[in-house]
Structures are given as structure tokens and as C-alpha cells.
Amino acid sequence: MWNERYSTEEYVYGTTPNEFLNDVSHRITGNKVLCLAEGEGRNAVYLAREGYDVMAVDASAVGLEKAEILADESYVNINTQVADLAEYEIEPESWDGIVSIFCHVPSDIRKALHQKVVTGLRPGGVFILEAYRPEQLAFKTGGPPVADLMMSLDDLKQELAGLEFVHAKALEREIKEGSLHTGMGAVVQIVAIKPGGEVI
């Protein structure tokens, strides 16, 4: 599905970073950042331009090929890895930041993945997430077709137990990110920090 979706010259989610990530990425004070379900690379390339050492992970080789092209055109380097997030292992305490922007997987996979996120952050490491809530089904402006692939604030607070939340909101906002995410959206946003490091 994703290889087919990305098999076009168009960057279907655009080439500019997610607005929320753009606003909060400065909270990542270390250098190593992992981007989950990174697709065509817009967020990874943005972070690389900001000076971070970025690993972009996605199930689509086609998407990551486009990510590498975008990085080349932006005169930055990113690392890419094709992987199924159901099986992807995150080494404990190895990342200063982990980014999850519209990373929609089945709830059982997501719960296990978020446990890996908590252990994978270094002390002081930052997790940044924006995703659609089930209420998004009424807007029909992008996102998965079923509620199980979406997230609620309450679920995320349970799944990310062990992190300290500095921003946790469910809201509606106008989204303009390529042709597939355009219009009013029902989203949840998280910025959470692993205790033990310096917080700014």
C-alpha cells in the first residue's frame, strides 16, 4: 500500500515539516533523533537542517528513497532504514529524541512500540508525537479509515507511562501537509521527557 502511495513524483504529504514538530523540536537538546514512520522524509530532512543526526525508519522503501532525494536536494544527510514497526527494535537509552508524526499502526503494535520508545530514550530525551484521534473520521481530511489506528490522549498517557508530559493536548487544527492531509483535523499532541536529564 505505502509503496504504491509513494510511487509518484509528488510528495504526497509535502516537503515542509509538520507544523507541531516545527514548533517544539527545539526541546530536543541532544543530537541523535529517531523518526518513526517517516515516509517521504519531510520531518527528517527538517531536523537534519536543524543540525540533528537523524535516523528515518519506514516500512516503505519507495518513501525512503524519496526521503534521501529530498535530503540531497536540501544539502543534508539523513540515515534511513526500511523496517516493519511491529518488529522494529529500539535500543534502550540510545536516542535524544524520538519523533512520531501521523504514525498510525494497529493499537496492539502501537502499545508495544510506545513501550520501546520509553526505554529507547536517554535520560532527558524527548518524545514528540502528533496523530489523529478517532474524531478525525468525521472530518475525512486524511488519516486512517478506522478508529483502531488512531489515538486518544488517555491511551497515550497510559502507553507512555514513565515519561513526564510537558505538552499533552487533544485539539482541532487546520492541517496543510501535502495533498493527503488538507483541512480541519482532530489531533492529539504530545511532548514528553524521560526523567533524569536537563529539561528546558
UniProtKB/TrEMBL annotation:
| This protein's UniProt keywords | Methyltransferase, Transferase
Q: Which Pfam families match?
A: Methyltransf_25
Q: Among its keywords, does the record have Cytoplasm?
A: no
What residues does the Methyltransferase domain cover? 33-125
Picking any one GO molecular function of the record gives: methyltransferase activity
| Gene Ontology BP terms | methylation
Coiled-coil annotation: which residues? none
PANTHER family in the cross-refs:
PUTATIVE (AFU_ORTHOLOGUE AFUA_2G14390)-RELATED, TRANS-ACONITATE 2-METHYLTRANSFERASE-RELATED
Protein name (record): SAM-dependent methyltransferase
Q: Which species is listed as the source?
A: Leucothrix pacifica
Q: What is the lineage of its organism?
A: Bacteria, Pseudomonadati, Pseudomonadota, Gammaproteobacteria, Thiotrichales
